[in-house]
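Entry:
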Amino acid sequence: MASILVLAEINQDKDVTKPSKQILLTARNIADELKANLTSVLIGGNIDATKIQGQLGSCGVDKVILVNEPALEAFNPDFYTKIFIKIIKEQNPDFIFGINSLIGMDLFPAASFHTGGGLAMDCTDIKLEGSGLFVTKTMYSNKVIAKIKFKDEHKPKLVTFRPNTLMPKNVSPKNPEIINEKANIDQSSNKQKIKEIVKSKTKEVSLTEAGIIISGGRAMGNWDNYKILFETAEVLGAAVGASRAAVDSGYAPHSMQVGQTGKTVSPQLYIACGISGAIQHFAGMGSSKVIVAINKDANAPIFKKCDYGIVDDLFKVVPVLKEEFKRLLSK
């Protein structure tokens, strides 16, 4: 019987992330087609096993391999890689899926190297056609959509997915078996030391998990002006992003940067405020389902790529939008 293994991730609240749930649901649908087993791997520290069992069970997982030790609470690439590869070799799955996150981008190439498996990164869709597994990904700053087929002899077949691009069907919940795996960490081999973890003081929605994102560009002028974006985001339950031009100008931190050298996002709605629409920015948000652009320059490149455009000063438009969103959502 075929088997699928998914590397799940958790957020600061120790809940399974939205992108992980999307991948797990997708994997369950594929597993049902293949009559395969679905196993989820979760590596971390101080995790509530009962809560995680329920969250993964709602995604149709058959079995959970939990590596839960305090030393693993912060991501350590050396430790995580060794644990992940050990589990892969023990489970010998046919398919391995994960998020194209900082963790996924670290672990999956290493897993491909150590197992000899085929690897496709940052994919946006996956389909079974006959006995063949096909994945879709964009290339060359979203100018090309590639459809890639894994060779049948490749085992395992490893795939990471861009967050919020999969639209899986709902599945029947399960009560997965929990297997507690020991990490057997050799602290003497640790090549890095974490002195401090600085957590966000606000309860902002994560950019990679957000269904709605409102971003500001160089036209924001300064950090204080981002207040109008955060106020609007609070009304919508959205995340706030920034272009590289805004970050380079010192208006916003790099953690908010969307684009080729920042975060890649795929929300249902992306509102670009004062962003010209350079190809590097579009590479990070081009797969958004609906793009709204606000820019007083009618010739800005983003108007050729957006679904809806407003040619006006963002400082006039955004407050009006915020009040209109309030009115509509109050109904």
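The chain has a mean pLDDT of 91.
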